[in-house]
Amino acid sequence: MRKRALILMSIFFLWATATIVYLLFYSVIDSGYYKNKGRKLFERKGIIPAPRGIIFDSNNKKLAWNERSYNLYLKPYNGFIGRREMVIKALGRIFDTISNPPRDTIQCIKTHLSPFELVACVEVIKHYPELEIKSEIKRCYANINNISDRETYNQVTLRSKLGKLIKKNGIFYGISGYEKQFDINLRGKSGTFTVLVDKQGRWIPGTWKETTKSQAGSNIKLKYSLEQLLSESEKKK
Amino acid sequence: MNKITSSAPIFQFKLITVMLVLLMGVWGCLGIYNATVFSGAPFYFAGKQLLWLFIGLLILYATYITPFKNFKKHAVLLCSSVYLAIILLFTAGVKINGMIGWFDLHYFYIQPSEIAKPFFILSLCKISDYITTEKLNDAKKFFILLGFTALWILPIILEPDFGTVLVYMAGFVFVYFITNGKLIYLALTALLLIIFATVIILTEPYVAARIKGFLSPEATASGAGWHTLQLQYTMARGGLIGQNWGHSLWSNSFLPLPYSDSAFASLVEAIGFLGSIPVIISFCILTFAGYKLGVETPERINKTFILSIIFLITFQALLHISVNVTMLPATGITLPLFSYGGSSMIATMLSIGMMLSAARDNYLQ
After folding, report:
1. Per mean pLDDT, which range of A24-33, B69-78, B354-363 is the poorest?
2. Do A38 and B249 touch (CB under 8 A)?
3. B285 class by beta-carbon count within 10 Å (0-12 exposed, 13-18 middle, 19+ buried)
């Protein structure tokens, strides 16, 4: 019995040695290869848009600036019957009203989340990966209601003077007016980042890494005041 | 006089066993904390495991102070009870991951096929002892033991829990081999196992998928090969010295069941190659201590039980580690004392307690 027990124990020790060899291979000898392979599969690269510069008039009044908003999106998801209703019910505990959008495309179901709503939504997303919060930057323009009684006209005039923007890959490009004229200065230089995503494509907390720093766009100060801009337009008309 | 002089090293081996069990249990709790640290409730599983460890230690002590002759005397009753519990699963059990293997006791789940392991070994030892005493021939001995094992594993096959079936079959092989079983019959057992495995692979699609995923993980990267690939990436991240406790990003994000089925790989990520070697060495020391206790025990049935049960624990541990280092395909076997689970902890503590009791009895005589 002693001899047979010794044989079995020896087999186990040999087996244990074989596991150590395997472990050595994956965690030390070839670890670099497998680490990179894993990282490549789940690493995503992205652009960090540089904050676009602010446009001031000659009196340092802000005419165009950026504002960040957090919006809630619902993606198509092949879950069990009744899952969508569960998602809507869970969101109903946060929002007074919530729409149930079509199931086949990604839809924005709530814009401009408040800090409270944002925290509450993050908790719901943990259970429902089909929900996603996206942060978006909006370009805002001065409201000139107090300056003139011809509000609508003046607002349109100011907007056309400042110009229009288009958004490509999260970056604003000026296509007319001052936004176009000073586009290179206002745009700045975009940065880049890497992040790991899980099987559902969600970002894994703590894995976001900035690879290139973004450089914020320069602020522009115009030679004219807001009033001058408007009166000049009127004269031309 | 001889017994008194030889009891000193025996006491040392028993002490080593208990100390190792305690150390590995605490180590396991840390590992579970590490594997769930990003979940938002890292103390949920680790805290429960700590409680199971405490209960397990009480069970170990209770079984240790119970004379082994009592276990032998009531072996039929004990074995019938656990076997009945396994049968009852089909009417009162709950299905988890496609397997009817647990009783839902509201606050926790109990897996009777885990807890039944030491009693199964005890039954085999008792039958084997009876056969030797009655001087039945080898063929009879083999077929009686195999028949008993087949009867025992039948409900477990129907659950179906093939990983546990494999452990029970290993238990049969250990008892038969240790009690001077003929090698020709062991070869026959191997042949039967191969036929059984082939039938399972052909009839159970998920088993076939696991084998396929193991052989070519890249080809089924998002399906059956996922587990194998993630185990490789997790070990690679561990490197030589690991990412440190609480920094096992891969285990927490990608590895399936990092606190149970993939407990060893999760540990490798945290403490690296150098930190994981002591885990394997601890199991080797535990095996050696059990071996020493077994061979120093004069009574045949006690000796067979001690050796078989410690080999069964080692087999299960090495099977788990082999799956985790991608040497073998996934079996769903947990790592004794390290993986999360009350049933596994109770089964291991019962086994160690009964083993120590069997070793103690001889020195009380």
Report:
1. B354-363
2. no
3. middle
Q: For residue B181, is pLDDT > 70?
A: yes
Residue B328 — very low, low, confident or very high, per pLDDT cuts 50/70/90? very high
| Min Cα–Cα distance to chain B from A48, Å | 24
ipTM for the whole complex: 0.91
Q: For the CA atoms of B95, B98, B102, B104, what is the dihedral angle to 10 degrees? A: -30
Lowest-confidence region among A1-5, B66-70, B174-178: A1-5
Distance from CA of A202 to the nearest CA of B (A): 10
How far are the Cα atoms of A122, A148, A176, A183, B169 from residue B283, in angstroms, in the given order?
A: 43, 85, 74, 68, 21
Using pLDDT thresholds of 50, 70 and 90, give the confidence band for residue A146. Answer: low
**pLDDT value of residue B8:** 61
By Cβ distance, the residue of A6, A22, A207 closest to B325 is A22
Cα–Cα distance measured from residue A180 to residue A189, given in angstroms and rounded to the nearest whole number: 16
Under the banding of pLDDT at 50, 70 and 90, the label for residue B37 is confident
**How far, in Å, CA of A39 to CA of A196, rounded?**
7
Instruction: Assign A48 to helix, strand or coil.
Output: strand
- Position B146: which residue type? L
Q: Which of B132, B318, B355 to mutate to test the interface with A (most CBs of A within 10 A)?
A: B318
Greater confidence (B286 vs B222) lies with: B286
pLDDT at B1: 41
Tokens representing A180? 């176009």
Q: Is A3 on the interface with B (CB under 8 A)?
A: no
- CA terminus-to-terminus distance, chain B: 12
Side chain identity at B93, as an amino acid letter? G
pLDDT digits (tens, 9 = 90+) for A43-99: 888 888 888 999 998 888 888 998 888 999 988 877 777 888 888 888 988 888 887
**Partners of residue A55 on adjacent β-strands:** A64, A220
Asked if A13 and B284 come within 8 Å (Cβ–Cβ), the reply is: yes
* Token representation of residue B228: 């194998």
What is the C-alpha separation between A118 and A141, in angstroms, rounded? 25
Report the gap between the CA of A197 and the closest CA in chain B (Å): 9
